[in-house]
From TrEMBL:
It catalyses: 5-amino-5-(4-hydroxybenzyl)-6-(D-ribitylimino)-5,6-dihydrouracil + S-adenosyl-L-methionine = 7,8-didemethyl-8-hydroxy-5-deazariboflavin + 5'-deoxyadenosine + L-methionine + NH4(+) + H(+). It comes from [Phormidium ambiguum] IAM M-71. InterPro entries: Aldolase_TIM, CofG_family, Elp3/MiaA/NifB-like_rSAM, F420, rSAM, rSAM_sf. The keyword Metal-binding applies. Its cofactor is [4Fe-4S] cluster. It holds the Pfam family Radical_SAM. This is 7,8-didemethyl-8-hydroxy-5-deazariboflavin synthase. [4Fe-4S] cluster binds at C23, C27, C30. Keywords: 4Fe-4S, Iron, Iron-sulfur, Lyase, Metal-binding, S-adenosyl-L-methionine. The FO synthase complex consists of two subunits, CofG and CofH. NCBIfam families: F420_cofG, PRK06245.1. Its EC number is 4.3.1.32.
Amino acid sequence: MSAATSRQITYSPAYTIVPTYECFNRCAYCNFRTDPGKSPWLTLSDAEILLKSLQNTGICEILILSGEVHPHSPLRKAWFDRIFDLCKLALSLGFLPHTNVGPLSFAEMAQLKTVNVSMGLMLEQLTPILLNTVHKNAPSKLPKLRLEQLELAGELKIPFTTGLLLGIGESSADWWESLEAIATIHQRWGNIQEVILQPHSPGSQQTWQFPAFDTHLLPEIITKAKEILPTEITIQIPPNLVQQPELLLACLDAGARDLGGIGPKDEVNPNYPHPHYQKLTEILRPANWELTPRLPVYPKYDDWLFEGLQIIVKQWRNTIQSVDFNSDSSVIL
């Protein structure tokens, strides 16, 4: 396909590592968590074996995704240290860490900045009504606390991904309010790389009995989001949760330009496997969309990174376009 006729849709070749599924929150729609003390923490030795098996497969992003330990728990420091050490290990083996582990203190975020090229936290929704329903037993889902994370990331110059979870009891007016809050923070700090629009998709572990979000509303929401958000923020949609090819294409036509981190398993939505790279290509190519790999940090933010991180990022920028993602040896998609 010629450059003149193709249009680029990006994704990050990624693998998710989970330090622990234990979480003190009990979000009613969650398909990820286990109760504290009910699952072992990932050891550094096991992580090293796993990460070494992923070398030379085309994977660039290691997403560190964890259940949350209460800020005042005696295990908080051990939990944070494990996350930091996993990031450091991933870096030492040539990967680019991106951490999403819930709200963090300023000091914790500052420390993680030294071993991450970007970080993230879903805003989900700002409306306080959810604190009486799906977030009733989720103390870290306070809207003020999550907005503060976006502000802290801006103050610390951390490239950041956030997003909305759609269909958990909010109204359409709540979508626009949440997007406007993200836009305001970005206008102040310029730190928001991407906004994910994630439709609630029921899973086998959740306790909340509520239907899936109507994904046919996504193109309209994307169009409105484009009007609210600054133009440099990329809108991301998860292709495993938008499974109808014609709807996926409609979302791209409406302005979505990224498909997120794609790997063997979506840990947050384990009932919805990621589509294979080749399958996505078959959907996109007839409409002149070209699926293009990217790094978990956008080029405009490279100079926000510490020097050691910049060196690794530069090496990846020189090689990622030449990776053969159709190779049978690739484990990523």
